[in-house]
Amino acid sequence: MDVTEYEEWLTSLRRELHQRPEPAWREFYTTARIVEELESLGVDDILIGREILADGERSELPEEGELERWFEQARETDADDAILDQLEGGYTGAIATIERGDGPTLALRVDIDGLPRLESESPAHYPAAEGFRSIHEGAMHACGHDAHATIGLGVVRAVLESDFAGTLKVIFQPAEEVIGGAKPIAESGHLDDVDALMALHIGLDHPTGEVVAGVDGFLAVSHIDVAFAGEPAHAGAEPNVGRNANVALATAVQNMYAIPRHKDGETRINAGVIKGGSASNIIAEEASIHGEVRGETTALMEYMKERATEVVEGAAAMHGCDATVEFGAEAPSAESDELLVELVAGLAAESKHVENVLYRDDLGGSEDATYLMQRVQDNGGVASYVGIGTDHPGGHHTATFDVEEESLVIGVDVLANALLELAGENSPLVTAEAGQ
Amino acid sequence: MDVTEYEEWLTSLRRELHQRPEPAWREFYTTARIVEELESLGVDDILIGREILADGERSELPEEGELERWFEQARETDADDAILDQLEGGYTGAIATIERGDGPTLALRVDIDGLPRLESESPAHYPAAEGFRSIHEGAMHACGHDAHATIGLGVVRAVLESDFAGTLKVIFQPAEEVIGGAKPIAESGHLDDVDALMALHIGLDHPTGEVVAGVDGFLAVSHIDVAFAGEPAHAGAEPNVGRNANVALATAVQNMYAIPRHKDGETRINAGVIKGGSASNIIAEEASIHGEVRGETTALMEYMKERATEVVEGAAAMHGCDATVEFGAEAPSAESDELLVELVAGLAAESKHVENVLYRDDLGGSEDATYLMQRVQDNGGVASYVGIGTDHPGGHHTATFDVEEESLVIGVDVLANALLELAGENSPLVTAEAGQ
Amino acid sequence: MDVTEYEEWLTSLRRELHQRPEPAWREFYTTARIVEELESLGVDDILIGREILADGERSELPEEGELERWFEQARETDADDAILDQLEGGYTGAIATIERGDGPTLALRVDIDGLPRLESESPAHYPAAEGFRSIHEGAMHACGHDAHATIGLGVVRAVLESDFAGTLKVIFQPAEEVIGGAKPIAESGHLDDVDALMALHIGLDHPTGEVVAGVDGFLAVSHIDVAFAGEPAHAGAEPNVGRNANVALATAVQNMYAIPRHKDGETRINAGVIKGGSASNIIAEEASIHGEVRGETTALMEYMKERATEVVEGAAAMHGCDATVEFGAEAPSAESDELLVELVAGLAAESKHVENVLYRDDLGGSEDATYLMQRVQDNGGVASYVGIGTDHPGGHHTATFDVEEESLVIGVDVLANALLELAGENSPLVTAEAGQ
Amino acid sequence: MDVTEYEEWLTSLRRELHQRPEPAWREFYTTARIVEELESLGVDDILIGREILADGERSELPEEGELERWFEQARETDADDAILDQLEGGYTGAIATIERGDGPTLALRVDIDGLPRLESESPAHYPAAEGFRSIHEGAMHACGHDAHATIGLGVVRAVLESDFAGTLKVIFQPAEEVIGGAKPIAESGHLDDVDALMALHIGLDHPTGEVVAGVDGFLAVSHIDVAFAGEPAHAGAEPNVGRNANVALATAVQNMYAIPRHKDGETRINAGVIKGGSASNIIAEEASIHGEVRGETTALMEYMKERATEVVEGAAAMHGCDATVEFGAEAPSAESDELLVELVAGLAAESKHVENVLYRDDLGGSEDATYLMQRVQDNGGVASYVGIGTDHPGGHHTATFDVEEESLVIGVDVLANALLELAGENSPLVTAEAGQ
Predict the structure, then answer these.
(1) Which CATH number fits domain D3-218+334-434: 3.40.50.1820, 3.40.630.10, 3.40.50.300, 3.60.10.10?
(2) Residue A362: its pLDDT value, please?
């Protein structure tokens, strides 16, 4: 199978999505656009909205008004209203199923959300120069999920055009950036019959033409939300009467980053979003931190949670404030199964598009794909996470992040071939089972 | 002159204004309502909008969208559209002039803006219990400017009903809370012919029935706006690449409050409003502080500005960030003239409404009335600032601040009598001049 | 009486003392030298050691070894061993009493201790240039107590040479810098019969030739001692196991300085001496702060104590450490009595040595002389604190502090004359009593 | 060879050393005692003092007075004065050489210094209960170097009692804890002819009976010394004039620990020893930090150095202070050679004293043995670092650290046998060379 000819189509799709980045749970236009494309490719089994998201399991939802604003914005595009109706309230994402004869049940997971950050306007930034920079000011596909969604569609097309025999579920997952989308999909049960699941990420500091057959080193992650409550006072007339929530926050933020490194491995913490106070002349009554902690293992993540809580409570006490600490959406750690890593490494090495293959490498970050991987592994299947290199000028999550579009073909090529092989006569899945 | 009978009218006016607090430069309804009341009292010389605000001198304006939102909200009331039209864009406030025969030119200044803070819903909070709590959620008359505006109207009525001979200008000043409204009025020149200016404040921890003849101890004040610019990075994958604006801010905030006390007198600093960062998993690229510094003298305020700048720049450098520091609206210090203090002290002592008179007391805070006082004093006039006590359950700027409504009559009584005396036969203004 | 001729003698005495500064409770040589000088002036009633210090009331004593080290050092000088024997263990200071006929009982208090700080070696520093720089490295008369002791001796000589009638007690007080010496002397009862007490300070940013008749504005002060106890750990191998006392201290120090300013007046705080940890590769197990808090009133000092405690406890909790907070030696506030202020102002104005007299000025610092002043005032006497100006190149407590030696004569002149007047025929003490 | 019978002798030696811990460069008694024991074992080639330490290469020396104090203390023991004479000035440590016929040149390195920390007095602490707790208050063998020195002597005895053919150099290295002793020995050239070097550490959280054949994961380390210089001022009278070195330090310490984690691996930082200020009422003029930074690689150590410098300079600037940052003694990273790891693993597995063998494990800390290992490896030899488990109640560097004395025999057994094997007929060194 040669997917080289998809290049123009993939590029065009990717740019369309890039231009309309939608952050977590707001992927209204994105989902609708994906569904339309799936339909035009001939897929007839497409689940969306509440069908794929277990009840009550979504987390990190934005505020009502924010959801509405993005929904209305999607309404104003030419996206299909009937589809949008099913997404209302933040029920975004889709699962496309292709059932073709006997064979294993396979799955591919791609994530589709953008980030709440401004995209560079510099002429040196390719999307800006080429006119497909984000039209949603303050939102940006700064982590390549536009490419992921595009590759997902490319794989669907490639499989449809092949002699694939078996079942393939392609999961277009929302809300990865807030670690919110994988859990409700896992809990929906749609993956419980899957024999092999693959997920992918583009970039990760690997150059175009390089493929990482098995990405590991996922950091377990948890959101942390802190609220400080102090006492307001007139900052000029009687500052001593106040209990300053902003100073409590400042003390906490500094000391959260200073939580000791741990002998057992990597830890992370970030006070990503802070805000506090209401007016320049009022001692701040309220302040909040929205952040995250990570650990190389779940135990290390728990260590960070424990210490962060201690820091926050101490900082509040120092300044006579109250504090609440809540831990939000979490994702566990996970490992790519050797069976899939070997398969991908072998196929990638043979691909004419691939110049270099790394067997395994560490992500060093977190991903809620681990929820899905664990779910499949817990049910007896195998799972892996593939890295598709691409030269990216800016780092992930920065204003100048971008992907080289020839990587799209590489992603489709490597993943489609892996899926075909898994469903083929010499599938390692069969061998593995036989060998047990 | 007995203004006791005004009580019901004053109370009703004050509650009307209390229910619709409008923060700085957004006093659309408030101004319109005041103008209507002035008209119904028979005042025909009323200046509003651009007529009273020197071009380009307004500061601390809210964002465009914010202005519009409040303007539209005022539009939806029964406020006079013709008046509102002149206020559009944040040209709020009014000057009412009464000219009646020969006599000195006097002025009274009252401020009319509310605060951006939530009002208590507790049944123990009188406005909540009595049904005139703010209908603008998140805004509140938490500093008694509703009472100030009401007293201003009461004084107009009392003067109109008296045998006053001379000219009286009552200034309904916007944007005191952001130290933004006095300067453009001073610069407009409307006060340049004033022989005596009085301003007032209710409360200030003095009980109902107590009057402070001359308030002093105004702290000079300046706004400070700080912006930190760092480098974003994925907080899990490569935190080392980021330059964390939130940590720079946290370090700065802590150390701003730690600027050494000064031997020459009182200083203040407040990082009133802070915010930073865009997402929990991105190292914060931008963060900002909106605050203020104060000093017992202008030199002390300058000391705080200098040290705060040093702190901010050091904090930015520590974390590889850039920082800009801007100082916004300022108000100087000022003193109440003895001539007026003695007059008010004498009249207050004789008033049947007043139980106790303090000669002088310190404000211990800041007020942009000092701009107007200085302007008048610079032009050869006299000026003073009078405190009208009122029992207030919560402190100024807190959710449970409230005034005892019988203080309204006291305020009108003391100030109207002082103005009448100043314009009368035995006016100390004449004596003072003669004595020179 | 003309004391101009004392100049050479005073200068020589002062330089001798300057060269051998001894910090609080270590004034062994200093006390012995003063006693010898008193004896050579003919004073026969000299109390030293335990005779003047109430049992158990000394505070802020240095460690045993430190006391011994300074004692041994004094032993090696030519100081009288018999005197030294009585001072052993830190029982320093002396009270010289001159009883001459009928008259009031008067007292003069001078303090005699040095500071634990290095003296400048710069040739621009007069004592260094003239060869009387401290020979005790790390200790320095950086606050002029060498001049105070010298003036005390000068006053004794002047009184002895006059026709003084009455009783004069000159208190050479130890340990002022640690607020430790006044209390045990007050508690000893030696001042309980005193009708008028005067204390003095040289410098205070007043130039040579200027006298402040009554210094006020003493800040109440209290020492604060904080000890943090954490858990040690190998900083490389398992930093997470540690509980870092140094970070707890750092957090506390920053936030102590950030305690809000108070509406009621001046406050101060200083974490003067900090130390913590034992080795570069061990997470610090212990850390300590030795500092002080001050307030314009005792209530303000208490406010600072309360907030500082809160800060320390919060900082310890943040880092899983324990903390103890102890408040040490305290001094109250005090006021100079008008009777004495007027007397000194009058005499100073007439003195040929004095160029300018200030009636009253604020110290803006603390002094444990207030203990003695309060004691006298509580027993029906009057007390005051006189400022003797001197041009000092460096600020008090800095390495280049120095006094102009002609101020010594001025101090003796003003104080001796005041004492003579108080004991004279027209003593205001008598008038005051008669007038009651 | 059976060394079981050495047990009593080893235990007695270890307790003797344990009782007299001497920190870095102060191992006067320790070196003398080792030399005496070597002599009594019959070793005649013993180098000490300047013979083994390259000129000018010692670092982290204590102050002169401190060296003298420890030297005098050693003088007062029954240690041989002739030996002590050669050690004066901190030229501690020894190299014992055994030359016996043809064979390879081998080396064993043991470190001998104690730590500057107080030892537990608890009866639950074995050395306290058994009466061999440190008699040097404030110093302690809290990292097992007493056991290392003892094992070194045990290996010498075992080799002397065997048919060993070849040359063995046993290096009794001083000043490991300050990363100061290995470099001058490496630079002395004594190891340049060594074919195989082994070093060891006891404990490391491995239980008695467990052996780690090859320890890796040494963190590169560098000392950091920071000095802040501010401006002193009287803390009560004019705090604003001061430039507070203690606050600059506090800000720096907090933010040093908050340096971002790095994607490339482990980093560490410790502000181990802090001190600042001179008196409670003086704004601190000087403050200092003595600490360290580490990294999994040299590049990561450099990253920490760079960021720490930035933090310190920013903190100083914030508070108007100057700062100097100096990086002291450093140790690189290193790896144990496979040839030696396999040899030790094999021999340990056969030892009757050993219950469990780990092939490789990470140290997770730093060691200046890496200097010696690199020197040997650079000259074509092989090197390794062996872990000898021991149940230790408290962690390394804590007050209750202790070793199980039966581990001493295990250490001697494993290392002596490895050395004999390396010098034997079937030496892997020969095979390795032959195989080249």
Answers:
(1) 3.40.630.10
(2) 82
User: According to the per-residue pLDDT averaged within each range, which of A292-301, D103-112, D328-337 is highest?
Assistant: D103-112
Which chain B residues touch C266 with a CB distance below 8 Å?
261, 266
Chain B CB contacts of A238 under 8 Å are 364, 395
From D198's Cα to the closest Cα of chain A, the distance in A is 25
pLDDT tens per residue, range C300-345: 999 999 999 999 999 999 999 999 999 988 888 888 999 999 999 9
Model ipTM value: 0.78
Q: Which residue type does A246 have? A: N
Q: DSSP assignment of C269-299, as one string?
A: EEEEEEEE-S-TTB---EEEEEEEEEESSHH
Q: Provide the token pair at D325.
A: 């940052």
Which string of DSSP letters, residue by residue, matches C334-354?
A: ----HHHHHHHHHHHHH-TT-
The model carries a pTM of 0.81
Tally of residues, chain C: 436
* Contact between A263 and C255 using a beta-carbon 8 Å cutoff: no
> Which residue pairs from A285-288 have beta carbons closer than 8 angstroms and sit at least 24 positions apart in sequence?
A285/A229, A285/A230, A285/A231, A285/A232, A285/A245, A285/B117, A286/A227, A286/A228, A286/A229, A286/A230, A286/A245, A287/A227, A287/A228, A287/A230, A287/A245, A287/A246, A287/A248, A287/A249, A287/B274, A288/A225, A288/A226, A288/A227, A288/A228, A288/A249
User: What is the arithmetic mean of pLDDT over C349-371?
Assistant: 89
Contacts of D86 (CB under 8 A, 6+ apart): D48, D49, D50
Q: Which residues contact B9 (CB under 8 A, 6 or more apart)?
A: B154
pLDDT band at B436 (very low <50, low <70, confident <90, very high): very low
The CATH class for the domain spanning C220-329 reads alpha beta
Residue C333: what residue type? S
Measure CB to CB from residue A364 to each of D263, D267, D364 and give the nearest one. D263
Q: Which chain D residues are within 8 Å of B255, Cβ to Cβ?
A: 247, 251, 318-319
Interface contact B241, partner D, CB < 8 A: yes
Measure the CA–CA gap between D295 and D300, rounded to whole angstroms.
5
Q: Tens digit of pLDDT for each residue in A184-231?
A: 999 999 999 999 999 999 999 999 999 999 998 889 999 999 999 999
Q: Give me the residue from D254, D260, D263 closest to A255, CB to CB.
A: D254
Residue in A255, A260, A261 nearest the CB of D266:
A261
D283 touches chain B (CB under 8 A): yes
- Give the three-class secondary structure for A157: helix
- Residue extent(s) of CATH 3.40.630.10 domains in chain A: 3-218+334-434
Structure confidence by residue, pLDDT tens digits, A358-411:
999 887 778 899 999 999 999 999 999 999 999 999 899 999 999 999 999 999
pLDDT (tens digit, 9 = 90+) per residue, C373-411? 999 999 999 999 999 999 999 889 999 999 999 999 999
C191-235 pLDDT tens trace: 999 999 999 999 999 999 999 999 988 899 999 999 999 999 989
Give the closest-approach CA distance of D305 to chain B in angstroms. Answer: 13
- From chain B residues 308-347, the ones with a CB under 8 A of any chain D CB are 310-311, 313-320
Residues of A with CB below 8 A from B282's CB?
115, 117, 270, 272, 397
The count of residues in chain D is: 436
Q: CATH 3.30.70.360 region(s) of chain A?
A: 220-329
Measured CA to CA, the distance from residue B139 to residue B28 in angstroms comes to 14
Q: Which residues contact B306 (CB under 8 A, 6 or more apart)?
A: none
Mean pLDDT (chain D, rounded): 94
CB < 8 Å from C in window 121-140 of D = none
- Number of B to C CB contacts under 8 A, please give it: 23
